[in-house]
Amino acid sequence: MTGVPLVDFLVVAGLLFAIGLWTALRRTNAIMILMGIELMLNAVNLNLVAFSRYMPGDAMRGMVFALFVLTVAAAEAAVGLAIIILVVRRRGVVDVNKVNLLRG
Amino acid sequence: MVGYAWIVPALPLAAYILHVFVGRRLKERAAYFGVVAMGLASVLGVTILVQAAGGASAHVSVPWLQIGRYSVPMGFTVDPLSAVTMAMVTVVSWMIEIYSLGYMHNDPDFNRFFANVNLFVAGMLTAVIADNFLLFFMAWEIMGLCSYLLICHWYRDSSNARAATKAFLVTRIGDVGLLAGIWWIFSITHSFQFSQLAPALHAAALAPAALTAIALLVFLGPVGKSAQIPLQIWLPDAMAGPTPISALIHAATMVAVGVYLVARTYPIFQLAPGALVWIGYIGAITAFMAASIACVQTDIKKVLAYSTISQLGYMMLGMGVAGSMVAGMFHLISHAFFKGLLFLAAGSIIHAVETQEMHRMGGLFRKMKATSITFIIGALALAGIPPFSGYFSKDPILSAAAASPYPLMFWLGVLGAFLTAYYMTRACLLTFFGKPRDQHVYEHAHESPAVMTVPLWVLAVPAALLGLFAAGAFRSFLAPGYVPPSGGPAASALTLALPLLGVLVGALIYGGGRTAFRVAAIRALRPLYVFLKQKWYFDQLGLALMYIALGVAWIVAAFDRYVVDGIVNGLGALAGLLGRATRTLADGSAQAYMLTLLLAVAVGLIALQLIGG
Amino acid sequence: MPVDFGSVGPEIVLAGTGMLLILLSAFVAKERQRPLAYVGILGILVALALSWADSGATGTALAGMVRLDPISTFFRVTFLAAALVVALTGLDFVQSRGVSVGEFYALLLLATTGAILMALAWDIVMLYIGLELLSVLSYVLAGFFREDPKSNEAGIKYFLNGALASAVLLFGLSMVYGLTGTTSIPGIAAGLGRAVQGPMAPVALLALGFILGALAFKVAAVPFHLWAPDTYEGAPTPFAGFLAAVSEGAGMAAIIRIVFTGMAPLSSSFGVWIAVLAALTMTVGNVTALWQTNFKRLMAYSSVAQVGYILVGLAVVTREGISSVLFYLFAYLFMTLGVFAVIAALSVQGQGEDIADYAGLGQRNPWMAGLLTLFMASLVGIPTTAGFMAKLGLISASVSGGYTWLALFLAVNSAISVGYYWNVVRNMWLRPSPEGAVPARRATSAAAGLGLAVAAVGVLVIGLLPNTFYVFAHWASFIPGH
Amino acid sequence: MLSVAVFLPLFGALVLLFVPEAQRRAVRAIALVFLSLSALAVLLIAIGFHAGQGLQFVEDVPWMPALHVNYFLAVDGLSLVMLGLTALLGLIAAIAAHGITERTKLFFILFLLLQTALLGIFCAEDLILFMFFFDVMLIPMYFMIGIWGSGRREYSAVKFLIYTIIGSVVMLIGILALYFHTGQQTFSIPELARLVASRRLPVVWEDWIFLAIVAGFLIKLGIVPLHTWLPDAYVDAPIPASLILAGVMSKVGAYGLLRVSQYLLPSAAQHFAALLAVLGVITIVYGALAATAQHDFKKLVAFSSVSHMGFVLLGIAAGTQLAITGAIFEMVSHGLVVGMLFLLVGVIYERTHTRELSRFGGMYASLGSGGGILGFAAMANLGLPALSGFIGEFFVLAGAFTVFRTEVFWAILGIVLIAGYNLWMLQKILMGPEREEWKGLPAINGRELVTLVPLMALCVLLGLFPNSIIHVLHLPVQQLVAHLGGQ
Amino acid sequence: MDWPLVVFVALAVGILFGAYRVATAQVVTHAALYLAFVLSLVAGMFYLLQADFVAAVQLLVYAGGVMTVIIFAIMLSELSEIRAQAPQNVLQRLMSPYFGILPLLVGLLVFAVIMVAVLRVPWPVAPQAAPADTVTLIGNGLFQTYALPFEVASVLLLGAMVGAIVLTRREGSDR
């Protein structure tokens, strides 16, 4: 693992985070937004694991943190999708901008 | 008895209180109590005068108010000046109250009339014997109030109400000037006591200009109250009140209290010679101006009103030039009697013929003997024909004016005297002699009842004889060791000749049937006649000032309603507008919220990076 | 070494009750689930008692995950009190909507546990997990009324924005872990101390930016607040109260824990930022509220404005500042929950949620109108109410801390706030009630009555005898490093 | 004893809560009972009060030790005078509240709450307690104007509330800044006064704090730039509320100036004295001019009240013994006079249901003794001697003459204008030909007389024997003047 | 040949391309597949970083679990219009904040800021000594230091599950 410096991982993670952000903002379909958020969380995990691997200090913490992020992401996705399905079933549309009953 | 001087004002005050609380039930009988009280007061007043003449005097004061280190005592003082005036006021007021019993008989507001009269007399008497400026000013304002209430006695006619408001406002302007004077003096002397003012001011060694300013400010009060130029516009309108009131307030007493104030605070004026010159000029001009206007008046009460202004002008002239208040004061006392007499006589004529227009009178001599004779006695005294009191009180003033370094004052005075004689002759001829011009009025004329004619005769006595007997005694009593300046024989000759000349000219124009000559004379002096008729355009000046004040008031009110309120509401609306803008931010789409969220994070990050820790 | 869970007793009781309710609600039919609510309330009370009992304990526990200190006791008591009031006043409302009461209360209790854990957290992982427990369940609770389209919309909007914010927070936390190599807050403070001097400063600031942004979202500070109005309006009313009091409080606790303690070395920079955030939040919150017609939406903007006031206390990075913030949070919970309780009680009786529907309430229902007037007066900051004492504390902290301009901002804002708070009161007392108005009140249930009473007494007692609460807040405001 | 007097009305309000709305008479009776009891308590305090000593009936109990705030009530000459005025006007306003027919129970509850706040503020010796009462009186007054008012009542009520709240919050900031800069850990006024007497605060800060504190009081006093709420509030409030608003609440501003800003920040007070004097005079002339142009009788009285407050401010700004005593006297006399005027507005409104001056005329006969009383009130309003108004104005201007000569001359213009609109009002209402529509109006009845006669009697009593009040004011004013370094 | 570098580059390119496709895929299901592809590559990255347990969990939980949930959601929502809407005219796309420039701008902005901060910092080049056995290490961590977060995570999962069920179960009232 000699060749790859930490900064490369951070750049990839940063870029992945930015793309995830771009997806979340760009899409009107709720599920697509969720995917964007999943990408961002993956970027965070990448960061964490990379830091735990390269930075001095307790490597375990980073990985455990990543694991927790995974589980939470799963739970969040589950609830999120449940809500999205509920909205789709009620309002027949998944386009977030159509859902603007509440405004002002 | 001198120590009980406070009882004199207390009696009419008691009458007032009786009228207020019990008057309505007792109806006209309540007035009798008032008259009796006034009688007692007159007796007491005269005895005090006699004792004062014997050298007695009193000064009683009781602590009334303590603010910090200033103590303000209240009290009364009996000295020659106050004793004389008090006596005159009590007698004249008594006569007028008796007269009013007849005049105001079965008037619906009889009780209110007498209540106000008694309050007024109490006020006047308190002012006369007050020993300090504060009590004096309080009484001064109470008199203003009573004059206001009595002018609009017949309040149903709104012109009376307007006249009353005008009277009060114009005098108020004067009063406020007096107030400023009082505060200025107080700020220097820290006391209101008349006795202490002059020495304290002298000790303070103020600049002459300041002293003159103080004196003139104090003089502003009398200018308002005694109807001097330019604040004289209210007195003719004040004739709207019942005639006894015109006699009491607007001839004998209230208007004279201004002169009395100048007399009481004369030491202050003596500290400021410049002010005395001012007073002299104002007096002279007022005398001449009022006399000229009186010549063209057709309403008998207006004639007497302008005559009063003119005589007050003389008193002020006396104060200004005579070096002592004696001349002025003596003219005040004598004027109170004969002018009171004239007004009461005019009142009895009006009471009889129900009109005030001289042109509808004529030939009343035969019908109203007593009133006519007393009126004529008064007229002669007023004109200054010897041996009546007018001559003896006016002569020292004119001779002092002649002796003074200001010839204009003398000539205005003397010409005034000529005009006075002229318009009084005109008035007498128009009302009493010649053919009755209005038959209906003539039949209706009848002599007034005794209750009105007796006071006329009583007042006629001092009007005729006061000058002869009391002139010398009065001068030595009020100002021992004072030598009145004399203007030389020419001046005294003139003061004698001109009134006679005035009578002659008056008789010439208005005597006999020579109407053609009268019409020609009037047409010849047409422009002068119109100018005088318009009362030298003073009324218009007053109205103009009033409209300016109302205009400014309206502008201020509009400014308040629109501009100041506008700004406040504007600020409120601004908050609203801001709210509307931020409200559109939340337009309902989750996408926009997320975008704003992340944009904010991005901006925050950049700012932190740039500015940093 | 055995892990002693003793120190988190109250949280265990609360979570346990929550899970018990899930079990029970599976067996009991929806219509007869009212007693389950009482079980939930009992759970809260027990937790409250427990947390009061061991308020003296200080020191870290559970391998540094949790720190028991005065401030954690304070937050425990505040959140449990808020949960109690929400539980009491929400019962009728939830039941009237024909939804499974047991499940609602279960999720409510679990969410409260999450909030408390966030306040106790002494480790960023623990804090994250607590935050997520609170947030995820909040998304469900926001969308709990399935038939009501507004509730669905509230749910989805809160979820999307929330998930995004938690991703942003995570990225910040990962950076912090990267710099300091540890997840325990004291460790981070030490690590950052070294990092800030060295070349690592930019990344530290980056992390601060991400974390501040995410937590600003959580407390709904402007410009991160856009989710709040829609969520408050759409969500079930008691839950909206919960959001305003507990969820926002938890956000404040997180800020105090991470930013004030964890990132203390950067303290010179975030003081000014929080002041700017405070001024912006106050003004926008107040000004936008002027235009609201829906009462719950108005309360959303009101809570945004109130957050602005609280941030003033935080901006003054002194102990008085923190103690005035804690006092304000405690006082604020009673006022806001009081208002939401009244809205809930009235909508159970069929009254609409628009301000116009409140017209003439003074005549129709004087007691309810009187209570609402008291709460509104407290929100404006009129004396004899908790609001006045809370604002007094804030102003004195900001004046003594040298932020006088912020105090003046607060003054102007409280004047603007009169515009909309008093608009409601004016409607109630000065306007005649519309024709189809709800007839005179039907008796509210004992629970709702008790909840309202707790809120009203809270507002009055803090308003008239604030001393004990000042002492409590001051004692609680001890933070290492300040 | 003092707390009893202050909190009796509040206790009455609580009792009223349980009285059913229907018994309107019982509600009124209870309210009157409690108000008269509280007035009696004030009377007992007055009797037990010794002019020479400083603060008496002291009740100093720690209330918020954490913030060094005490529940500190005490009475000195100034407070006693104001307490008396409040108790009296409160009682009279309650009697005059017969016009309130719907929701009377709520009205009297608010009224009693307001009365407690007003009594409390005049004897509060602790700055925070002072602020406490200062704000508490807002809510009842807001509702009184809002619910029972007339015309644009809601607009005026909200305007009143916002104006005063801004004032109070800015003042709160000022007080807190004062607290921190003295570093004395106390809010008690006598304590701070002792400190100020010993050494001065840094001037820069003191000016700023002074402005913050004075702003609140100037709004309450209705001084020109900050007065726009006053005419609306006075006009749109029901008669009893206008009576309290004009009679007592505006005095709170003046009392505050005397008790807090002039007393605790003397060097700043001297620094701004000229500004305050100019503002005072502008208010006098502005108020008088605006009053002259009004068509509505009540608005005329409102602007006249603005103008009179200008005198009070001029007196306080002058800072001499005479001027301040005059200002306090003017506060009391204005309370009585404006009370009478508002009651008379009510009397006429109840009969003619209009306040348009142009529609009145010749009502002297039909009003019976009411006409006389209106004349009396107008004369008292324009400061006729032998009535209390004159003494107040006279000594304010006499005292101010030494310090602000040009301002006094402008104030004199104000006095003439005041005389002008008062007489114009009398002329418009009482005089002139009697109009058809006002024939056969019921004369003034017993209940109205009961409210008016005591005020008239007091007016005359204070006019003739002002020493009865001034001897009590001697010590407090002397302390204040000593502080200001005046004479 | 420096194997780890080559593998890293390959994985990185794969991840970023996949992410880009997720962002721009017209069809939701395509996006979902690309997402699954990205997730598995990230697992590879973890493996590259010797975090084998995490890589395994990533594959199992994310690639497996979450993806299936997302696929189900897509199916369940019975999308009539599977394809994303046809793009309006270019101007409209540019102007509207959702489709147009703004999301891209924000994404770039955030990326730029991260890079500015990260690149200025001297990160270590070489990794630390690889831990012998990551599983025991993580096991200890999970059940010793992070015991409480572990328990709370379980409560969270339970809550999320109950919540999801409550929201989406078919009730009599639904159709």
Question: In brief, what are we looking at here?
Answer:
The complex is a heteropentamer of chains A (104), B (613), C (482), D (487) and E (175). By secondary structure, chain B is mainly α.
Structural topology:
The complex is a heteropentamer of chains A (104), B (613), C (482), D (487) and E (175).
Chain B: H1 7-26, H2 29-53, E1 58-67, E2 70-78, H3 80-103, H4 110-129, H5 133-151, H6 158-189, H7 194-204, H8 208-225, H9 234-237, H10 243-252, H11 254-264, H12 266-271, H13 273-294, H14 300-321, H15 325-353, H16 369-383, H17 389-403, H18 407-432, H19 439-444, H20 450-478, H21 488-510, H22 515-524, H23 526-533, H24 538-585, H25 590-611
Antiparallel strand pairs in B: 1-2
Helix pairs in contact in B: 1-2, 1-4, 2-3, 3-4, 3-10, 3-15, 3-20, 4-5, 5-6, 6-8, 8-11, 8-13, 10-15, 11-14, 11-15, 13-14, 13-18, 14-15, 14-17, 14-18, 15-16, 15-17, 15-20, 16-18, 16-20, 17-18, 17-20, 17-21, 18-21
Chain C: H1 9-27, H2 34-53, E1 59-61, E2 66-68, H3 70-96, H4 101-120, H5 124-142, H6 149-180, H7 185-197, H8 201-219, H9 227-234, H10 237-262, H11 267-289, H12 295-315, H13 319-348, H14 361-364, H15 366-380, H16 386-400, H17 404-430, H18 446-464, H19 467-476
Antiparallel strand pairs in C: 1-2
Chain E: H1 3-24, H2 28-48, H3 52-76, H4 90-95, H5 101-119, H6 134-145, H7 147-168
Helix pairs in contact in E: 1-2, 2-3, 6-7
Structure description:
The complex is a heteropentamer of chains A (104), B (613), C (482), D (487) and E (175). With 104 residues, chain A is an all-alpha fold. Chain A has a single domain (6-92), classed as Helix Hairpins (Orthogonal Bundle), CATH 1.10.287. Chain A is built from 3 helices and no strands. The model of chain A has no long low-confidence stretch (mean pLDDT 85). Chain B has 2 domains: 2-535, no CATH class; 541-611. In chain C, a hairpin with a 4-residue loop joins strand 1 (59-61) and strand 2. The longest helix of chain C has 32 residues, at 149-180. Chain D has a domain at 269-487. Chain D has helices spanning 2-17, 24-48, 77-95, 104-122, 127-136, 138-148, 153-182, 189-198, 203-221, 229-236, 239-264, 266-292, 297-318, 321-352, 364-367, 369-381, 388-401, 405-430, 446-464, 467-484; strands at residues 56-64, 69-75. The radius of gyration of chain D is 21 Å and the shape is globular. The model of chain D has no long low-confidence stretch (mean pLDDT 87). In chain D, a hairpin with a 4-residue loop joins strand 1 (56-64) and strand 2 (69-75). Chain D has 487 residues and is mainly alpha-helical. Chains in contact: A-B, A-C, A-E, B-C, B-D, B-E, C-D, C-E.
